[in-house]
Prior knowledge:
Blueprint: H1 13-16, E1 21-25, H2 26-43, E2 48-54, H3 63-69, H4 71-76, E3 79-81, H5 87-98, E4 110-118, H6 119-124, H7 126-135, E5 143-149, H8 163-168, E6 173-174, H9 179-196, E7 200-205, H10 206-209, E8 212-216, H11 245-266, E9 271-274, E10 281-286, H12 287-299, H13 304-310, E11 312-317, H14 325-332, E12 337-341, H15 348-356, E13 364-366, H16 385-399, H17 403-419, H18 438-441, E14 450-451, H19 478-483, E15 492-497, H20 498-515, E16 519-524
Parallel strand pairs: 2-3, 2-4, 4-5, 5-7, 6-7, 10-11, 10-12, 12-13, 14-15, 15-16
Antiparallel strand pairs: 1-8, 9-11
Helix pairs in contact: 2-9, 5-7, 9-11, 12-16, 16-17
Amino acid sequence: MSIMEKRSVSLDDKYTLRKGYAFMTGIQSLVRLPLVQRELDQKAGLNTAGYISGYRGSPLGGYDQQLERNKKLLEEHHIKFQPGVNEDLAATALWGTQQAELGGEGKYDGVFGIWYGKGPGVDRSGDVLRHANYAGTSKFGGVLALMGDDHTAESSTVCNQSEFAMVDALIPVLNPSGVEEIFDFGIFGLALSRFSGCWVGLKCLHDTVEATASINVDVERIKVVIPNDFTLPEDGLNIRFPDTPHAQDKRIHEYKVDAARAFCRSNKLDRTIWQGGIAKIGVVTVGKSYLDTRLAFDELGIDETKAERLGVRLYKVAMPWPLEPEGILEFAQGVDLIIVVEEKRALIEPQIKELLYGASHRPQVIGKTDETGEPLFRTAGALDPNHIAAIIARRILTFRVDEKLKDRLHEMEVRLDLSLLPQESMVRLPYFCSGCPHNTSTVVPEGSIAMAGIGCHYMVQWMDRNTLGFTHMGAEGANWVGQAPFSKRKHIFQNIGDGTYFHSGIMAIRAAVSSGINITYKILFNDAVAM
Length: 531
């Protein structure tokens, strides 16, 4: 094809092209993922099927819509999309897909699965995530768990960071930096799940999953390498029946987590981006923070060539837990200082410190705190590229003299100081859509009060509706069960969305009936799910 030649373009290219590039969002890449996984399995001589289930919520709020729009294409590739009643029941259904061949009655060689849920959905599913991960995945199945995190509570009632819930269940976590990596890590994640017998978490932030990009769609591009330096137990690491809790505990602690590290190492998922010449400083980062860090370097006028002269290395982590040790230890050789840039609570930083403890070469490691124990990269909110740039520049200037970098740092510090000044702006709080039943259904009689819950009607708390407080999803009214015996008020109204009622809210109503409290539930019908 000549440079001026045009080819026909279809909106379905993002799902059907097998070579070249296609423009898509991160969510659409997650629709493409199971289609390609099925094709890769077929090329490997496997007859597999796919299953997708979960519960919508930002930043994955549009995933089920894209799946529904492409349901015919998915079914043609033996992939079933079944929205969950709630997150933990959906996760249980995914657990079931890994049991399909245990009784010898499975229709396929294996069933690979994708679970999706917002941060609070990860939290409420802790029990099944632990049980399913301990039980394991099937040899030609595997499960990828999409964690929809909202670090700054832009569309949530609490700031989410789901990695620690996954770590607690001993589920390895992959953290992509963009649309192409979301897809790539999805393919690697399913392969990792099959090899290690673990579920695998894939972190999805709105900064990445709602972004758009032209990505390389060559089906043959991704080459999965099965580790040859890790010895599996004779009976493997996959799900089996019969099984015992003690056998599962032994497998996961003595083999499965280490198998995940071996897979990461063999496939070079974590990698050194800049070697940094005779490096004094090593910068380690992950996911969205990698993009912020690269932007910070751009603001400082530092590219790979200048980093080589300044002695700055850059390391990109793909799997923040469990951290693969050999790569990070090799990266740390020779440097005097490691700066860990990661958003929210530190996950990578303490693992690096633990790996370096007792090592022959121990560079200083800073991240959430500096060399003296003072706060450095904040845990609350999100990280800002200008703030990252200023911190990195100050450390570089302690090792190298560079007048241009010094001038850039000064300009940046002036901008950072100005950003702290009070900003005059018009602030408009969000409100119900025109015509939405919530405009009238959330009104309460004079002298009465109501309580809110999860959904659009959460916003009623800042409207003139005499509505006080809220609960997490599905517990609407249960807080009044505890409050009523100690309150002078005899009755309240409790708003609950129709989606929440179907999700899990009926349990709270049963609790209210059982307790005998005086409460009137208003089931708010608008046939929509929000937040």
